[in-house]
Amino acid sequence: MAFQAINIIATVPDNMNSPGPQTPDSTIQLKEEPTEAENQNQDIQVPETPVVATPKKRGRPKKTTTDEMAESDGSPTKKSKTPTPSKKSCGPIPTSLENATVTDRMILRMRDDEGRGWGDITKAWIDTTGINVGGSTLRMRYTTMKANFVSITNEDESRLLKAKKDVEDKFEQDKWHKIAESIKADGGMKYPHAALQKKFKELSKRIDAVAADE
To answer: What value, to the nearest 5°, has the Cα angle with vertex 75 and ends 69 and 77?
Structure first.
């Protein structure tokens, strides 16, 4: 149990030192000393709560005019690209000069009249039509157009059939003649052309029959 110490402070009036009876003016003041528990409470210091700095939020980058326009349109922003020639079809090849397009006539003019190379013709075609083509595409188109535009008379049609037969017959004779010479040069016998043709057909049928059995 803690005891409180009381200091008594007496105030003695001046008349008490003088002889004679004491007057009732003397007063006594009491001053309480702090207790041990109060002294301990005064020694305890409450720690200050540290102040935590709140990190600042990064703001969004400022939008450019292009971004704002894209958002207003409701579509994402796309970078503009340099237009490239498309790979569309060149269209059907005309069967007559009357049916030829402007670009087909350009090919014929540049090749036949101006004698231009295929590199220049291809570049002019791409620049005019916007259609990308390979290196040999227009050359084959030109060849087919030239064949389509040629007209053969009825008299020359009969000559065509006769000339083809004559050339093939002559080629057939020359072929077996060279075959016979090749057999003899290899150390074999000399055979007539007809005999070699007949034997070749027999051998061909025999080989086909063996292949069918397998």
So the answer is: 65
Domain membership of residue 88 (yes or no) is no
Structure tokens belonging to residue 37: 């528990």
> Three-state DSSP class for 50?
coil
Residue 56 lies in a domain: no
Give the phi and the psi of residue 51 in degrees, each rounded to 5. -90, 120
What are 75's two structure tokens?
């579509």
Ordered per-residue pLDDT tens for the chain, 214 residues: 444 444 444 444 454 444 555 544 444 444 455 555 555 555 545 455 555 555 555 656 555 555 555 455 555 555 555 555 555 678 899 999 999 999 999 999 999 999 999 999 999 999 999 999 888 999 999 999 999 998 889 999 999 999 999 999 999 889 999 999 999 999 999 999 889 989 999 999 989 888 888 7
Which residues span the domain enclosing 118?
Answer: 97-149
Residue 113's region, left for phi above 0, alpha for psi from -120 to 50, else beta, is alpha
Q: Give 177's contacts (C-beta < 8 A, 6+ positions apart).
A: 193
86 contacts: CB under 8 Å, gap ≥ 6 = 130, 131, 132
Residue 207: inside a domain, yes or no?
Answer: yes
